[in-house]
Amino acid sequence: MSQSSLNAGLDRIPPVTQDQSPPERVPGGVDVIADLCGRIATGVFYGMDDRTGRILHMASLMAPREVQGSVPALKAWLCGELSERRRLGVARYGMALQAGNGRDPEADLRQELFDAAAYSHQAELERQAIHYADPTYCPHCDKHGCIVREDGTHAGCGRPVRP
Ligand SMILES: [Zn+2]
After folding, report:
1. Which pLDDT tens digit goes with each residue over 27-85?
2. Ligand 1 centre distance from Cα of residue 145 (Å)
3. Could you give the residue ranges of the DSSP H alpha helices within the chain?
4. Which residues are near ligand 1, the ion (C-beta closer than 5 Å)?
């Protein structure tokens, strides 16, 4: 896939939603990502019973393996990723995300979460496609190289290898 076709996906993302006006600059307004990074860095952190904390937990699952085992490394990684989103926001809108910018953050969040669910499912489908290319793959046991009986069932679980 060429770099231009990779970028084409980004170009298709509209800068604002149909039913929402563009973000407004808020003089002296709170820089949302800077504030969030500050909370992550100082340990004034959202817990798992908090929505933002749960979303950050999901985001943490995307961290590289070497980062996963270290809380300081994970915090630094989270702030780095958030700072990159901030940089893109400044490039796109001329300013960082600000509280009170006139948009409805609940609506923006809802759309982004459903996009996230769709991308996650896409990744799952693409992983399955790799599995299913192997005739010895058993989806019930999630194993490759399984023994397949002549009747098409898997010796490990007795279920059909292709459901
Ligand atoms: Zn099986």
Report:
1. 888 999 999 999 998 876 666 678 999 999 999 999 999 998 899 999 999 999 999 99
2. 10
3. 3-11, 32-42, 51-60, 65-68, 71-93, 105-132
4. 138, 140-141, 154, 156-157
- CA 141 to ligand 1 centroid distance, Å: 4
CA angle 155, 160, 163 (to 5 degrees): 150
Q: How many alpha carbons fall within 13 Å on the CB side of residue 80?
A: 11
100/59 Cα distance (integer angstroms):
25
- Residue-wise pLDDT tens digits, 105-141: 999 999 999 999 999 999 988 888 888 788 778 888 8
156: tokens are 């490990």
Q: The pTM is what? A: 0.69
Question: Ligand 1 mean position to 142 CA, how many Å?
Answer: 7
